[in-house]
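Milestone M4 deliverable, item 7.
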Amino acid sequence: MTDPNLFFSHETAVIDEGVIIGTGTKIWHFCHIMRGAKIGNDCSLGQNVFVGGKAVIGNNVKIQNNVSVYDSVEIGDDVFCGPSCVFTNVINPRANVNRKAEYLKTKVEKGVTIGANSTIVCGIILGKFSFIGAGAVVTKDVKPFALMTGVPARQTGWVSHSGVRLNEDLVCPETGKKYILVDGQLEMVNV
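Output delivered:
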């Protein structure tokens, strides 16, 4: 287990033996981190967060209250998971059928924002810097920088690295960075 002097955990958090937790990470009230989980540096896990033993969480990840990161979920660096967002682990759960051998890998790439109360169905990839709107239900892979909203989630625009919606000119109104579309994928213009 990682040296407990290198990260903070609230006294109500349960951290099983055999986890890896990075320096500067904060684990708040009533969290449970299962044996084998890997959590990077400078993360923040809000109240009542569960992390499964096969889950991997990158650096500088912010997970708000009431989120369960199940086995087979891989979260990249600089990801924001809003309050009560949901990751699933099987496509067709039944109480009377054990499907632990059928867990599908879900990959959340660098810089993604997942809005409050949204659902991420297992087995998909959320492309880098994509933005999942609050309450959206994502059932398919998401392109990098895509803005996804609705039930089921559909692409309704593009966002910049800083999470600002882009207008038709594809220039970030916050930073002035310019983007272009190449074969349906958004890319930043090198300046």
